[in-house]
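Hello again, I could really use a second opinion on something today. Take your time with it, there's no hurry, and the full record follows here:

___
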Amino acid sequence: MLLPASPNETALWSTATIQPDYLTTVGDCKYSGSYEFIGKKVDIRTIDNCIEVFFHNNRIASHV
C-alpha cells in the first residue's frame, strides 16, 4: 500500500459570528464572508496557508 502523495495537514477549528460589516476575525486579521450570513455562526478552519469559512458544512469563503 502506498502513502498519500501529500502529507496530512493539521487544522485548527473555531467558531465565529459574521459581523454587520460581513467580516469575521481570526487572530489579528479580518476575513470577509458574505452579506447573506450576517449574524450567523460559522465554523472556521485554519491551516498553514488557508482560512476557510463554513456554514452548515458548506464552504462559503476561502482565503489564501
In short: Residues 12-63 form a domain with the OB fold (Dihydrolipoamide Acetyltransferase, E2P) fold (CATH 2.40.50). The chain has one domain: 12-63.
